Amino acid sequence: MKPCDRFVFSLIRPLFGAFVAVSAVLASGAAWAQDSIQVWTRSSAEGRKTYESIAKAFTAKTGIKVEYFNAWTDFEQRIARAAIGGDLPDLIINDSGATGQFVQMGMLEAVDRQAVAGGQDLQERAWATAKGYDGKYYGVPTSAQAMVMYVRKDWRTKLQLPVPQTWDDLEALAKGFTHGDPDGDGKANTYGLVFPGSAQRGYAAWYMSSFMWQAGAEFVRPVGGGLFKGGMDEPAALAAVSWMRKMQCELKVTQPGAMNAPTQEANKAFISGQAGIYISGPYHIALFDREPGRDKVEAIPAPSGPGGRGVLGGGELAYFPKAAKNKAGALKFVEFLISPEGQTLGMKASAGGIAVVRLPVNRKVDPAQVNNDERWKMVAQEYEKNAHTMPAIPNWTRMQQVIGEGLNAILSRCSKDVAADLKKLNVHVNQELSAQRVLAK
Amino acid sequence: MMRTLRQWLVPALFLAPALLVFTWFKFIPMALGLRMSFYKVNFGAPNEWIGLENFSRVLEDEALGAAAWNTFLYVSCTVSLSVVLALLLALSMQGVTRHIRIIRTALFLPAITSAAVLAEVWRILYAPTPDGIMNSIAALFGITAQGYLNDPDWALQWLMLMHLWKSVPYDMVIFVAGMATINQELYEAARVDGATAWQRLRFVTIPGLTHAITIVIVLGMIRGFRVFAEIQATTGGGPAGATEVIMTRIYKLGFVQFDYGYASAASVVLFVFTALCTMLYLQWRKRLEA
C-alpha cells in the first residue's frame, strides 16, 4: 500500500466504524421506540415526580417505557414548535382549556369514546370538557378540579373575622388584612386579595371568571344553534367588574403590582405573606401546606355573589396528536391513567411530588378514601355543585386574551365609566366571536 | 492566478464557520419566516397560501398600531437621551477619571448584564409598595409612593429609564473610542486660539465624533425597535397595554394565539421598517456630510 493510500484508508476506517455504530444505535432505537411512549405534561417538577410513579407502575404492567417531558409556563409554545417541526410526542396532557386551540391547529386526533377501555367509567361531566365545538371528543379526561379560596387562617382568627360567605364578608376580610396589621409586625405591608391581573395569557379573565359566575354573568352567552353573543355589556358583568374595581382602585386591598402579575407572581404574593386571600386551583393545596404552612392556611369555598355561588371548574385531558408514532402505546397509558389504579396513584403525591389527579374522573374512585383530607371533599363538592367551565366556543384561548386585555385595561386605568368601557370591550368580544364564525346575528 | 485564488480563499475559509452558523441559524429561518408570512400556517395540515392577506391585516390591526406608537416613543426617547447622556459620560471620562479603573468598570457593567437579570433587578427596584427601594428613596425627598410599572400613564417612561441604564454605558464606550481618534493638535490649536470649553466641544469634539454618533444612533434604533426581553420580563406589555411594543405584540400573536403566518408578516413589516429607517438616516447623514 502506498503511503498516500494508507493515509486515505486510515481516514476511512474510523468513519466506516462510526457509520456502523450509528446504524446499530438507530436500528436499536427504532426497535425500542415501539416499546416506549413520549408523554408531554404541563406540570411542574413536583408534578412530574408523581407522573413518574404512575409510569413506573405502567411499565411494570405493560413493559412500555414512558419518556416524560414537562414544562409549565411555555408549554403551549413548545407544543407549537414541535408541531411545526413534525416532532410531536405520542401523548399530551394539558389543561382542558387548550382543546379549542389544539383542534384549530389541526394537530389532534378525535377520540372514539367507545374505543377507550374504561372510558364508560368516567364522569359525563368530565367527558364534556373534552368535547370540541364540532361535537367530537378530542381528549380523554384524566383529572378534574374546581377553584377554591385560600385564606390566611392565622390572620383571620387574629382579627376575629368570620369565614367569608358573601362578597361583603370578603370585602370586610380584605380590608381587615390590609389595614389591621394581621402579621403583627407594626408595618402596613399586608394586603387582602391576591389578584393575578396581568393581561398575559388572559390571566385577568381567567381569575375574574369565578367572580363573573358569582354575579350571574357570562363572558359570552350561548343563544342556541352553536351561536353566542358577548355578555360583557350585561348588568351582571358590570356588577362583577365594578366590585373588582372597588377592591383594586378605591379600597386598594389587592397586592401591589397586581395588574402586571401573572400567576407565578400571584403565588409568590400569597406564599410570602404579602396578601392573604387567593382564589386559585386546588393544586396549590400541597404548595401552600409547605408555605405559609398548613396550620396557617385554610382552603374554603369561594363566597357567593349577587348571582349565587360559582367557580371556575375544569381539569386535564390527555390529547392524542395525529403525528404520534406509538398511538397504541399512548392509548394503553391513558387507559391505565384513568383506571382506578392510575387515578389513585395520581392522587397520592409521591415523595416530594404533588398530586396530578386532583379530583378523580373515574366514578369508581372515591376521593375521600384515597385522600382522607376534608379539603379535597370540599373541592369535590364545589366541582359537583358550583363549577362552571369556560364557554365552548371554537377557540377559547383567543377570547381569553381579548377579555383579559380589556379587563386589565379597565382595572389598571381605574376606569371612571366601567359600563361604557365594558360596552367597548363587548364590541371586541363580538368581533372575536365573528372571527370564529359563531356570532349570533 | 494562484495568488489571487489564495487571497480570496484564505479569508473565505476563515469566514466559513461563522457564515455557516449564520446561514443555518439566521438566514434560513429568516427566509422561512418570510415565506410563512404569505401563508395561513396550519399545524396538522399543509399551510394555505393566502397572498398578502396577513400584510393587509397588519395595516388594519389597531392593537398592533398602538404597539407601533409605543415603540416609536420608546425608540425616539431612548436613542436621543442615550446619545446625550453617553456623550456627557464619555466627556467626563476624558479627564483624570479615565485612569480610575473601578469607575470605568462600574460604568460599563450594566451594558454586559443580561436582559433577564436586568429586568428582575429593576422590577425589585420599582416595587410599588411604600417600602419598595425606589419609593423609599423617593420618600426621602418627600415624594409619595409611586406605582412605577403598574401605573399605565408612566410605565413606559420607567421602562425607558431601565433601557437607558443599559444602553448609555455601551454608547459611552463607542464615544470614548471615537474621541481617541480625534487629532489632539486640533484641541491645542483651539486652545491657542482662545476657544472656550464649550467651543472646543462644539467645533472639535462633536464634528470629530460624527461617525461614532451615527453608529450609536443606528444601533440604538435597531436595538429599540426590536426590544423584547426587558419588557416581557417586567410588564409583559401591560398594564392596559401601556408598554406593549411591536415585539411583545408579535410574541402574543405567534406564541399565545399561534397565528404564525400573521406574526411572521408583522415581523417582516418590522424588519423592513427598521431597515428603511436605518437607510434613510444613513442617507441623510451622508447628504449632511457632503
Using brief descriptors, characterize the structure shown.
A: alpha/beta; D-Maltodextrin-Binding Protein, domain 2; 6-stranded mixed beta sheet; 4-stranded mixed beta sheet; 17 helices; globular; B: 290 residues; mainly alpha; MetI-like fold; two-stranded antiparallel sheet; 13 helices
Describe this structure in words.
The complex is a heterodimer of chains A (441) and B (290). Chain A is α/β, with parallel strands linked by helices and 441 residues long. Chain A has two domains: 36-145 and 314-388, D-Maltodextrin-Binding Protein, domain 2 (3-Layer(aba) Sandwich), CATH 3.40.190.10; 148-312 and 391-435, Periplasmic binding protein-like II (D-Maltodextrin-Binding Protein, domain 2), CATH 3.40.190.10. Chain A contains 17 helices and twelve strands. In chain A, α9 (235-250) crosses α16 (396-412) and α16 (396-412) runs antiparallel to α17 (418-435). The radius of gyration of chain A is 25 Å and the shape is globular. The model of chain A is unreliable at 22-32 (pLDDT under 50). With 290 residues, chain B is mainly α. Chain B has a single domain (61-289), classed as MetI-like fold (Orthogonal Bundle), CATH 1.10.3720.10. In chain B, a hairpin with a 7-residue loop joins β1 and β2. The chains are: A alpha/beta (441), B mainly alpha (290). Chains A and B meet through α3 and α16 of A and loops of B.
